[in-house]
Amino acid sequence: MPTPLEKARKNPDSMKAKILSSARHLFGEYGYHGVTTRMIAKEVGIDISTLHYHWGDKENLYEAVITDIQDEIFNVLLEIEKVVRGKSMEIRLEVAIDVMCDYLFDKPEVPKLIVISFFGKTRPDGIQDGRLTEHASNVAIAMGLASDKQDVSPRDTALVLAISNAMYSFTSGESTFKGLLKVEHEEYMSIVKDTLKFILIPAFTRRSQI
């Protein structure tokens, strides 16, 4: 039997999908504890009983949001790996930075939710992020830092986290950083990509030669 998340994905115009979309936005802005089901229902324009009918309680909905985001990131990484397989480290990083930044800027609730979820106490205890650990291993392999998942060291994982955290920080903090730089969105995107490449490509190229 399909899960509520699978049903929402299958029919983007359905009530389940509308609730999921609003929940992603609100959880990204305020974190788990800063959002109520009444807030989500109000944004969708439904009563709270309709929300509970489609998704159950808040924790179920939050877990669906996290799973949805994790699956999206996984699919983006798969697409990157297809493009960069066999390429030089420099090209791998250029493509990874361009594609991931485009994805994160296009879906600003994703980096916001990740930053709030990981660096703040705004999540239910029962929610796990095992897929993100798997993502780190996949990126390490795609970047040529390791040959397989058993070969991924803590140092390799830390290097992957350096890339991810830099992207999440720049994209989730756009409203603040853009004002500091006094630029508009398109120019800010370009500056972020160029800055990440300037810092990360020499560092990773050097790491791959050690």
Describe the structure.
The chain has helices at 4-10, 15-30, 37-44, 48-55, 58-84, 89-106, 109-119, 130-142, 154-172, 174-181, 185-209. It has 210 residues and is an all-alpha fold. It has one domain: Orthogonal Bundle (Tetracycline Repressor, domain 2). Helix 8 packs across helix 9.
Short description:
It is built from eleven helices and no strands. It has helices spanning 4-10, 15-30, 37-44, 48-55, 58-84, 89-106, 109-119, 130-142, 154-172, 174-181, 185-209.
Relevant terms:
mainly alpha; 210 residues; Tetracycline Repressor, domain 2
Biggest pleated sheet: none
Overall geometric form: globular
Count of the domains: 1
Distance between the first and last residues' Cα: 51 Å
Helix content: over 70%
Helix and strand composition category: mainly alpha
The total count of strands amounts to 0
Task: List the secondary-structure elements in sequence, H or E.
Answer: HHHHHHHHHHH
